Fold these 2 entries.
Entry 1:
Amino acid sequence: MDEQEDEKNGRLESIVKVSILIWSATLLSLSYYEPPSGKKIVDFDPTFIASIFSGSLAALGVQTSKNGRNKKDKLIVDNKTTTTGIK
């Protein structure tokens, strides 16, 4: 009986996360869309909605990368052999 409740709660949690993702993506898209008439549909600062969008992506486990680097491509610097800043 307890497993069924956990599964039900997990489904509800996923539905809420996806709903918030769709809502924020819609508002974010509408904030940038400008029809040919020149009058925007919604006019607000999209920063808050963008943070909700990225937070909901993270909650669903989606990871985005800004510079396209993989974890294998990390730059490792060894500071033992450098003399930068030493007089």
Entry 2:
Amino acid sequence: MSDVLLRACKELIDDGKARCVDVVFKEVCLEVLARAKHVLDERQFRELVEYAAECIEAGSSIAIDAIQ
């Protein structure tokens, strides 16, 4: 069951990345992480944090490339 929840959290992050501007996307990530902390075990939560960080970093590098 918790693997399904982890996958759903990742999908929420992906959906937020596709539909939100950078600042709102970061807020979406924080909200997902805050709620996920209560339903995922420690290993899964760390995996989700790493996934969210990678998504945020990928978005930031795209924004920096566009400015330069």
